[in-house]
Amino acid sequence: MLELLVTIISAAFTLIIILDPLLSVSMFINLTRDLQKAEMIRQAFVATGVAGILMLTFLIFNNLLFDLLGIELESFKVAGGIILFILGLQIVLGLEIGGSSAGHKNLESSDRIGKKSMAGVIIGTPVMCGPGTITTVMILGAQDGILLTLLAVILALLCIWLILIFSAQIKKLLGETVLVILSKIVGLLLTAIAVHTIWTGILGLISLSVI
User: By C-alpha distance, which of 186, 197, 187, 188 is closest to 81?
Assistant: First the structure.
């Protein structure tokens, strides 16, 4: 029982890091600045709901995708780890992939489609549930099982929802500078998780080739 609990908490912690709540806090505050409290809470529900639906979809159909593509989990770990490593470097070093940062692109999109009504959708994806999150969910689902990963997803999304609800208070308490520093630390943790994922994938591929 204790081992299962540790697995769930560990998976949830990994998901929380990759969901990047610190980036979400800053963007959520900017996108919901002029909204009433009730509407802000609703947009927080929308954000976590959108991210949750996407994560659940890839969690349930991960084995089907692996079978259809004819690939092993170990190969996906290596490829997914590389993606996570790039995302981590982007956060730590402030790298811009594709000509503009994710935050800048999302803010531009929000101006075009109406930031007040679409704040939750924009935060839900691609800010929270992007390639890194999808990759992680699929890997966790394959190695820990759908049920345990589902519980981890629910726990992670609950934490993210609470963070969004109290985002204004968090920013006021910590300040913009501290949020930026913490975001860099999160990016560093993400690169460490990526290195571990790549390494375990390589070891798995080596063991398969030996067999």
Answer: 197
